[in-house]
Amino acid sequence: MSLHFPEKPRRPDGAAFVIAAGLAALGALLVWEGNRLPQLGGYAGVGPADVPKLVGWCLVALAGWTVVAAFRGAFPERPRQQVPPLLWIIGGLAAQLVLLPMAGFSIATGILFACTARGFGKRQLWISLPVGLAFSLAVYGVFDRVLELNLPAGLPETLLYGG
């Protein structure tokens, strides 16, 4: 019985260093912005500046962990990027941006849902489009009736919720 140990790469993982740099930059930005906010702790001692600073420091720590993993070669092999699913999702986002002012929230977001489902491998658009429209109408109802926030209304929203 022999043990198979994977060969270590000759160089550290360059993509991991790019990811670590992005995490560190975002973390440093959050810490910097958190330091600019006023510390109004009140009776609990926790103010609006504490959460951005905490998240920022956690991102900086994750960046350090990513660098260590890159030097160790601990990242699994990444699969080859597939372009068509990505184009379905980007096309759905573009369609939502274009249709949102004209068709309203439910139709635009339902189309985004169907395109994203297609990008993730669901081939039956005739099923995912009505499901997306139903979910979008429900989300619109929560935002409009419960949270009292305004979303762009189209024909379905006007008929169901009164606009």
Automatic annotation (TrEMBL):
Alphabetical keyword list: Membrane, Transmembrane, Transmembrane helix
Domain of life of the organism encoding this protein: Bacteria
InterPro entries hit by this protein: DUF1468
One Pfam family here: TctB
Protein's UniProt keywords contain Membrane: yes
Membrane spanning stretches: 15-33, 54-75, 87-113, 125-143
Keyword hit for Aminoacyl-tRNA synthetase: no
DUF1468 domain location: 18-152
Protein name as catalogued: Tripartite tricarboxylate transporter TctB family protein
